[in-house]
Amino acid sequence: MARIETRLRKDGKSKAYRVRWRGRLLLGGTRTGAWQSETFEQKAAAVTFKLAVEACGHYWPENWIRGSGWAPTTPRAETPAPAVEPVPFADYAQ
Predict the structure, then answer these.
(1) What is the pLDDT of residues 18-62, one digit of tens each?
(2) Is the full-model pTM beyond 0.70?
(3) What residues make up the domain containing 31?
(4) Does residue 40 fall inside a structural domain?
(5) How many helices (H) and strands (E) does the chain have?
(6) 82 domain residue, yes or no
């Protein structure tokens, strides 16, 4: 289970939020896996990342760049839907 730790910065006023979890080495995981962590400025971002880690089975989330955030996504080429001719109601009713 991932957890969020609130840490006070050196200035003594601002906070940082660190998400920590045990990395899973093999399928099924292990309690003695290496600790993994990522630090955030906002608590909301830390909560979102924590949920993503847990959803990925305690692996790093896909498209996450450590220390930078989510990788930019490239827009997919939209394939146009095939043209479908409307069916007249009289044909549909029969």
Answers:
(1) 999 887 655 444 567 788 899 999 999 999 999 999 898 888 888
(2) no
(3) 3-71
(4) yes
(5) 2, 5
(6) no
